[in-house]
């Protein structure tokens, strides 16, 4: 039997924290607390044994909250947090966060920053060099417009360990395949960036099907190959577009043409290697 998979991208939040500016009552399915007890049954059903929890608020406080959850939850194998990359305090904060066993990297919320060139600002250079020196990951939460900028960033910082979240959120619903497809292909060909097979269903029409997603996933496989893609649920955001189990089943169907070892890589091994996750705890194997 194959090893349990890894969910490379999921979230937890507590509304009482008050630092989720994007999370408003109109997002009714998401406007409540989500914690490990909510996710664990879904993981077991999908035969997922470990997760990487990713920040959802641009605060160090939320990162510490997620690290606290990881200390109490063996199957949270990695935490991707947030720091102010432009701050002179960035190295000190990284020192502090790296004391936690699960801390693996950072994610600036680039999609929410008005200036599309923000990531290229000189003020970020010292912190980006620190991330590369420490072999910490950089989750790129970007839209298609940011892909040429991300390529320029990696030309400046070729040692930065980057993974593109949600395949850069292509506009699947409207069928805007270009220039997303061209720019993503160039990024994959000219850099060592990885890409998450996640977040696609929330960019598709509400009645999406596997067939709707197929051209987009085929392009990701063609660009990155099965060795540089990693599956993520984007739970609980995925509840806006069918839920965890439906997206997991769709991903397995979309990956069916691959060889078994290649499917296992996308569904777990690649994330474990990229984030350098601890081995699967035997006591929580699905």
Verbal overview:
The protein is α/β, with parallel strands linked by helices. It has helices at residues 36-46, 60-72, 90-97, 125-133, 147-156, 180-190, 210-224, 244-254, 260-274, and strands at residues 5-10, 48-54, 76-81, 103-106, 137-140, 161-164, 194-197, 229-231. The radius of gyration is 18 Å and the shape is globular. The protein has a single domain, classed as Metal-dependent hydrolases (TIM Barrel). Strands 1-2-3-4-5-6-7-8 form an eight-stranded parallel β-sheet. It has nine helices and eight strands. The longest helix has 15 residues, at 210-224. It is 36% helix and 13% strand. The mean pLDDT is 96.
Question: Could you give a quick summary of the protein structure above?
Answer:
The chain is of the alpha/beta class and 286 residues long.
Number of helices: 9
Q: Determine the structural class based on helices, strands and strand pairing.
A: alpha/beta
Q: pLDDT average, as an integer?
A: 96
Secondary structure: number of strands = 8
**Could you please say which CATH topology applies here?**
TIM Barrel
Number of domains: 1
Pick out its properties.
286 residues, TIM Barrel, 9 helices, eight-stranded parallel beta sheet, 13% strand, alpha/beta
Helix and strand layout, with pairings?
Blueprint: E1 5-10, H1 36-46, E2 48-54, H2 60-72, E3 76-81, H3 90-97, E4 103-106, H4 125-133, E5 137-140, H5 147-156, E6 161-164, H6 180-190, E7 194-197, H7 210-224, E8 229-231, H8 244-254, H9 260-274
Helix pairs in contact: 5-6, 6-7, 7-8
